[in-house]
Amino acid sequence: MLKTIRFFLPTKIIFGEDTIHDFLPEISRYGKIPLIVTGRSSVRKSGLLDSITDILNRKHITFHIYEGVSPEPSVDDCMKVAQFAIRCNADVLVAVGGGSAMDVAKAAGVLVKNTGSLQGYFGEEKFKNDPLPIVAIPTTCGTGSEVTRYSVIIDWQSGTKKTISSERIIPKMAILDPVAIKTLPPGIIAGTGMDALCHAVEGFLSIKANHLTKIFSREAITLIFDNIEKAVQQRKIEYLSTLLLGSLYAGFVINHTGTIVVHGMAYGLTIRYQLHHGTANAICLPYALEFLKNHGYEEEIHDLEKIFSIDSLFDINKKIGIPVHLSELGIQREDVDVLAEMAVIGNERAFRNMKMSISKEEFVEIFSKML
């Protein structure tokens, strides 16, 4: 008998080459004064920002631009965007960028419509008023944030990543145009692509997974595994398109299942060592799977190994330029204890999606093997 299936997808999805040009004017359905939220420079340097503003100008749509979202978004980023949105009377936020821009836009949309500090909204459905609507245009092939209920933000006061979770911050529309990711450097393709793979794998192993999410997990894993090496090395639009689609499917998955231990393990690497989020996840993934295989997840890992082997994860990381060992990053044995402590904190929410919790001592064991 099949497990009860709950599947919720409120986002209007547009996927394909040059869809930004054709569908961007539809943002007027969600608001009259859009605020474009983007990072510090890459979207402008790629020419994408100019293309977007040209489209809006031709349609006589009044808009504003906020540039400067940090690669690892913080509470301060969210406050600045919210204050800017209020000053320019924006009523729809257009997030153009990777997960950072999208997560900041989601959080800022909450702040615009609700009083108080962002810290008060970390957790599940913590705010009262509906946020500003979001239109998402991803420029990386990994986060899936364009279709998820999560905004993950670094709270430097506590030194941890925190999550706002609400169906009300899921973007109203997502335009996935492979043209928007064609200028990505190889390292970002590798990191974000592997981030999407982690989403698909972790979602597959979540206790919240169901028959439908597992279908999307399997398809996402296959799309990413079969194309990431070619996408990194050749950067052809056909391979990038496939990664973008795999990332989208993985986003469908984690919107319902959440992530498990891999993301929580990686938090310490991103916060303490400023390692790219996706790269940190990619390093942790095979070691986490090896541990889980011997601690209650034998059947699930066996199912995954019909698609890929754990050893193949080490191989693919090597081929796309991602470290296999923490020692390659200068991390030493004396750092393991702190990483283990941060993993326990980082997995506070993830443990709810797992069969069991993992102790600090067990994390020490895992990180020691990663050296």
UniProtKB/TrEMBL annotation:
Q: Which residues form the Alcohol dehydrogenase iron-type/glycerol dehydrogenase GldA domain?
A: 10-178
Name the InterPro entries for this protein: ADH_Fe/GldA (IPR001670), ADH_Fe_C (IPR056798), ADH_Fe_CS (IPR018211), Alcohol_dehydrogenase_Fe (IPR039697)
Give start and end of each Fe-containing alcohol dehydrogenase-like C-terminal domain. 190-370
Q: State the UniProt keywords alphabetically.
A: Oxidoreductase
Q: Its Gene Ontology molecular function terms?
A: alcohol dehydrogenase (NAD+) activity; metal ion binding
As given in the record, the signal peptide range reads none
Protein's recorded name: Alcohol dehydrogenase 2
Pfam families recorded for this chain?
ADH_Fe_C, Fe-ADH
Q: Which domain of life is it from?
A: Bacteria
Enzyme Commission number(s): 1.1.1.1
- Taxonomic classification: Bacteria, Bacteria division TA06
